[in-house]
Amino acid sequence: MFRRRVELHPLRKLRETFWPSAGWKRAIQYGWRRVWRLSGTPHAISMGIAAGVFASCTPFIGFHILIAMLIAWVLRGNLIASAIGTFAGNPLTFPAIWFVVYEVGRYMVGAPVAANPDIAETLQSDRAFDMILPLLVPLTVGAVPVGIVLGGVGYVMTRSGVEAYQVRRRRRLAERVQAPAPFLDPRPPAGEAQE
């Protein structure tokens, strides 16, 4: 039902992922409209988006959707919206998010500044886990306040958009119900003989 009529070549799919042919503006508008049309209260949908945005701030790549759905379930948010909210963390935004999260976490933990770590060398060494752990703790601790702030921003933006959409939709449906039915003429069309 939601598939393309002509399947795209795998390289074209990859290109569409990073640079949509219809443009980023249209892709973002489509995503927002999908969120607005979700069934549920504006609070539940917004709480789901906030949970997804919060989960995107954590350093646990691969578990963002699971973390978001768990948080949304606990807070009674929309689970689908929580999965959509994780798109706040993507290859374009992760560097900025992680920089802020690391700096906030380092300040909170009181960790010293690392002396220009070489990430490739760190991952290839025998003591990779021992070298990554000092980075992981500030990232995890810093994700909490940064995630709460960004989740709050996502909640406010989503709630206002969902409420506006649902009010407009209810008004349109009420206008359709109140509109007079088209006049139906009980007489047969001219040219048809009556029995």
Task: Summarize the entry for a quick read.
With 195 residues, the protein is mostly helical.
Architecture overview:
- The chain is mainly alpha-helical and 195 residues long.
- It has a domain at 34-166.
- The chain has 8 helices and no strands.
- It has helices spanning 10-18, 24-36, 42-56, 64-74, 79-85, 94-109, 119-124, 128-178.
- It is elongated and about 95 Å long.
Salient structural properties:
mainly alpha; single chain
Protein topology:
Elements: H1 10-18, H2 24-36, H3 42-56, H4 64-74, H5 79-85, H6 94-109, H7 119-124, H8 128-178
User: If you average the pLDDT, what whole number results?
Assistant: 80
- What overall form do the CA principal axes indicate? elongated
Classification by helices and strands: mainly alpha
Biggest sheet features: none
User: How many runs of DSSP E, i.e. beta strands?
Assistant: 0
How much helicity do the residues have?
Answer: 55-70%
Distance between the termini: 47 Å
Radius of gyration: 25 Å
Element string (H = helix, E = strand): HHHHHHHH
Count of DSSP H/I helices: 8
Q: Pick out the low-confidence regions.
A: none
State which percent range the strand residues make up. Answer: under 5%
